[in-house]
Amino acid sequence: MAGNQQRNYYMVLLIFLTFFVISFLTNIIGPLIPDIINSFSLSLALAGFLPFSFFIAYGVMSIPAGFLVEKYGEKAAMLLAFVVAFCGALLFALFPNYLVATVSLFLIGLGMAILQVAINPLLRVSGGEEHFAFNSVLAQLIFGGASFLSPRLYSYLVTSLPVPEKQNAILNILRKLVPENLPWVSLYWVFALTTVGMLVIIFLSRFPAVERKEEEKAGTWSIYRILFKKKIVLLYFLGIMAYVGTEQGVANWISQFLKTYHALDPQTAGARAVSYFWGLMTVGCLLGLLLLKLMDSRKVLIIFSLAAIFLLSLALFGPVEVSRLAFPLMGFACSVMWSIIFSLALNSVESYHGAFSGILCTGIIGGALLPLLIGWLGDHLGLRQGMFVLYLTLGYILSIGLWARPLITNETIWMRRKKKAAAMASAENI
Description:
2 domains, Growth Hormone, Chain: A, single chain, 430 residues
């Protein structure tokens, strides 16, 4: 029994490590955008196509990944995911140009989409159903921590590599591998090495058998057709698109905005702002957990949406010191949106939760569309005006808090007390 427990604890740690790596590879695009624009002489629209290449992979792969994991198992799916991500990272590390960058990000996105589908049921089985909620939140905190750290690694590499006096084994190796005028490409060598490390660890690990709950099964194509005919499914799909589009629309353009309008260095001040955006999103998750025990999730969503709209206005129109604070604080305001929208969605249908989850995850393509749209508008109207579309997405998220009518609402402390009091009264009457 002890051996089985130990193996489960090991798997939980492996899943947490996987969450860390997914975030580490996913949320670095924003800090890189100013460098990519300068290195390859890109328009804002072409730069916006880079996050598009990454997040469109989620739209392509989220539903097929469910079938893949069900047929071949979590271990095989995770190995495939990291092989694909390794190919993407190595391809760009060896051939750093714009066209290769789009292909590279698409491949990394495919790998990350497969991983997202594979690891949640695995976490439930490995950590125990009774601890799943706690472990899921802990995984999100680890995810946020990696997003906080990766822009700082980027800053360290791009400021250290051009300085010959800074010597250590890693920097010396990277100087031989990376073109002098493209120090930021060093990150992709780090990504390639990271994926190799994960491949070795997963290959050597023993995975538990996963018995999928009904709501975790991918479903059949006929079930997807039934769901797509429901208006509520479409409305929540658009909600996930709006959230991920907002999150990535902000994160991917913070650094370029601060450079364009406030002349802040993207390799230091810009990367720091993106890092704090993700860091404050992690802190916001903790406050959100507390608020969801005190208030209806729809009210929490309305409050945080209004805060995000206010902060966006300060970020876009405020002076430099206000803007550089308001952008990171938007991470705090956005922190609860994903989990609340997702839970409201699943609690609004009676069945086919696994297939509905696949549809909702496909909504991650919002992260592909919004940064691209902002870039295109930025070329024609200016980046500030391009970011006005975030008012539309935040407005839609705000509206969810007003029209959502879930079959089951989140249990608050007050609801629990009422239920307990009602149960005691009923017992006394008997």
